[in-house]
Amino acid sequence: MIHRNRSSTIADVARLAGVSIATVSRVIKDAISELKFVPRAAARTLASRRTNTIGLIFSEIGGAFFPLLLKGIEAETRSAGYELLIHSTQAAHAQKRRPLGEHNTDGLLVFTSSLEIEELCRLSQINFPLVLMHQTPPDEMNTPVITIENKDGAEMLVSHLIEKHARRRIVYMQGPEGHEDSQWRERGYREALESHGISFDPGLVVSGEFDEEQAFASMRQLLLDGIEFDAVFSGDDDAAIGVYRALKMANRSIPDDVAVVGFDDVQFSRYISPALTTIRAPIEEVGREAVRQLIHLLNGEQAQSLTLMRTELVIRESCGCSPKEVNP
Amino acid sequence: MIHRNRSSTIADVARLAGVSIATVSRVIKDAISELKFVPRAAARTLASRRTNTIGLIFSEIGGAFFPLLLKGIEAETRSAGYELLIHSTQAAHAQKRRPLGEHNTDGLLVFTSSLEIEELCRLSQINFPLVLMHQTPPDEMNTPVITIENKDGAEMLVSHLIEKHARRRIVYMQGPEGHEDSQWRERGYREALESHGISFDPGLVVSGEFDEEQAFASMRQLLLDGIEFDAVFSGDDDAAIGVYRALKMANRSIPDDVAVVGFDDVQFSRYISPALTTIRAPIEEVGREAVRQLIHLLNGEQAQSLTLMRTELVIRESCGCSPKEVNP
DNA sequence: GTATACTATGTAAACGCTTTCTGATAACGC
DNA sequence: GCGTTATCAGAAAGCGTTTACATAGTATAC
User: Fold this and answer.
1) What phi and psi, each to the nearest 5 degrees, are found at residue A228?
2) Is B134 helix (H, G, I), strand (E, B) or coil?
3) Distance CA B259, CA A275 (A)
4) Is the CB of B93 under 7 A from strand C?
5) Which residue is nearest to nucleotide D26 (CA to C1')?
6) Is residue B286 within a helix (H) or strand (E), and if so which, with residue range?
7) N or C, where is chain A less crowded by C-beta within 10 Å?
8) CA quadruple B70, B71, B74, B77: dihedral positive or negative?
9) What does the domain layout of chain A look like in residue ranges?
10) Residue B145 near residue B307, CB atoms below 8 Å
11) Which among A4-8, A114-118, B179-183, B268-272 has the top mean pLDDT?
């Protein structure tokens, strides 16, 4: 704020109104618009010990997933009267930068594993308000978590492939190592197989990293290796794009030769060809709910320790269902 | 030679301990990390009169456009050592909320018309560092602007439709009223027509609002009205989706009956069917550059008053070119 | 060996607001 | 009428840093 030239302070307002500074601080009603007075956030923060700001820590802003989450978070944060400071821990995890924390926010929203576990513990220990999204905290930490029904969703999806489309050799394209969403989805996948009497084949689990390119590469390899399969459960929709590309390149028809399903239902999923059958995750709502829980914490109220959002099967064409059954 | 027993400097300690000064210095650092000391941002801000924070004002976080822009902005902001405070002026424009400004940021990035013109002027008058994206400032304001070659892009696109695919009745689906990108694109559209001896028909300009639904509705109407056309230049890629839907519903083949082209080249553009021919706008780079210019301003240096980013024609299938010519 | 320039260190004054405290005045009960 | 309590301004004490200033100590030059 170097460039402010003689902008009015609370003292100016007090003088104009003929009252004390304290009065102005209390009764910030009149005289303010007169001088276009805007309280200096830093001074306020320093005195009141509240930043009035919520921090969001995220890993990758790129994907199709992020805008949905952010939209929910932004809207809810705003309507609660808070500011939003965002921080992405892209690539250089080792960056020296001081992360968001007690010094500049009232509370933190943390997505997946975008924050080192030790920093998480530190914040938790000093009782700093924290809400996790799509990540279970270590046992000793009692931090609210918002996540989605990954297992149920995956199970629905895979069961659909088995029951409606008679698929038996279903590839699971998993996400990044240790990614919780991916682990739960795999569990759902396995349970669906099991409950339909299909034995689990580790050779059908490949790495997709929730990333188009990686998914493409893994799919190519699978095809080159001559592994047989009649369906692919792509860990998320982004990876499904890579799967599509690899299959088309190999002249395998989707869904006739290989049925493909995704997870998340991001914007493009309905537009790709064939339209992707997937699981709709209430991503925006996850964001909103996370903020709500954090606000509870900020107000000293109790927060719900686990919020599990329902997921929903969205049937389109890539599983083998016909376009007619599809609603746009 | 220590005359008195006082005055132990870091060098004395070092000498006495038989280690280097650097070692002693490191000990101090250790003490800091030992106490997990993190300077309070507010106090720092108050004393130094710098927030070390850049503000971003945006209107709609939803679209496919936003993540790209944000990614560039976030990365560059971070690498310059600043924090990022984001604020969206969605829907309720009249919200009482105090916007980002002198009180909590060092400078502001403003996208399109997401900030009222009078607030813009106010900030400009108090010499507050400001950078505009995709929006020309009022004359008296000397604020740096980053924008893209909208006109050139549009002209390339339309010329391609005319020259390569012999289209003559080309619909322009414009963006929101007063949206600068849209205005320039229309100008490019008109110039392309003119330079090919095609007269401009106002009846072929319809409203798409850069929005899928609105584009869908306008397209339906056009079809119902029986207006003849053999191509559609959709103001942006989001709207192109709506155009696709309306045309498919009316059983018009893309690109045989109607060629469709978009603008922006967002993530899904290459995946929809047929793959969308469009203009690649360096959105992420716009974000980066905007931050760079703002940093210049913050450092008291001169900033470039206008940065015009080149756009590039991306030919896919929706214009009528064959898939073979396409690179993935 | 002294004068001078320079550096490191300590001290104290902002920074602009919130909040607690204090005294004065008003309202109230008996 | 007096004493007690509620009400309300104004005064003043922070809030946790930076920074300007003063001071002491050290190196450099003659």
Assistant:
1) -90, 140
2) coil
3) 21
4) no
5) B9
6) helix B283-298
7) C
8) negative
9) 10-39, 53-147+283-308, 150-282+313-325
10) yes
11) B179-183
Query: Are A253 and A38 spatial neighbours (Cβ–Cβ below 8 Å)?
Result: no
CATH number assigned to the domain with residue range B43-148+283-308, chosen from the 4 options 3.40.50.2300, 3.40.1190.20, 3.20.20.70, 2.30.110.10:
3.40.50.2300
CATH superfamily of domain region A53-147+283-308:
Response regulator (3.40.50.2300)
CB B188 within 8 A of CB B213: no
| B75:A90 CB<8 A | yes
**Of A16-25, A173-182, A216-225, B23-32, the least confident:** B23-32
Give me the residue label for tokens 């929730």: A210
**Residue B108 pLDDT > 70, yes or no?**
yes
| Helix/strand/coil (H/E/C) assignment for every residue in chain A | CCCCCCCCCHHHHHHHHCCCHHHHHHCCCCCHHHHCCCCCHHHHHHHHCCCCEEEEEECCCCCCCHHHHHHHHHHHHHHCCCEEEEEECCCCCCCCCCCCCCCCCCEEEEECCCCCHHHHHHHHHCCCCEEEECCCCCCCCCCCEEEECHHHHHHHHHHHHHHHHCCCCEEEEECCCCCHHHHHHHHHHHHHHHHCCCCCCHHHEEECCCCHHHHHHHHHHHHHCCCCCCEEEECCHHHHHHHHHHHHHCCCCCCCCCEEECCECCHHHHCECCCCEEEECCHHHHHHHHHHHHHHHHCCCCCCCEEEECCEEECCCCCCCCHHHCCC
**Which nucleotide, over all strands, has the C1' atom closest to the CA of B45?**
D17
DSSP 8-state secondary structure symbol assigned to residue B85: E
B48: pLDDT strictly greater than 90: no
Nearest 10 degrees: Cα torsion B50, B53, B54, B56:
-130
- Cβ of B267 within 8 Å of Cβ of A64? The answer is yes
- pLDDT tens string B267-313: 889 888 899 999 999 999 999 999 999 999 999 899 999 999 999 99
Token digits of residue A75: 């809207």
Which chain D positions come under 7 Å from a protein C-beta? Answer: 9-12, 14-19, 24-27
Architecture per CATH, domain B150-282+313-325, reads as 3-Layer(aba) Sandwich (3.40)
Could you say which residues from 22 to 51 on chain A have a Cβ atom under 8 Å away from some Cβ of chain B? 36, 38-43, 45-46, 51
What is the C-alpha to C-alpha distance for residues B110 and B116, in angstroms, rounded to an integer?
Answer: 10
Considering only CB atoms, which chain A residues are within 8 Å of B85?
53, 83-85
User: Does this chain's domain A53-147+283-308 share its CATH topology with A150-282+313-325?
Assistant: yes
pLDDT score recorded for residue A122: 85
Please give the radius of gyration of chain B, using alpha carbons only, rounded to the nearest integer: 27
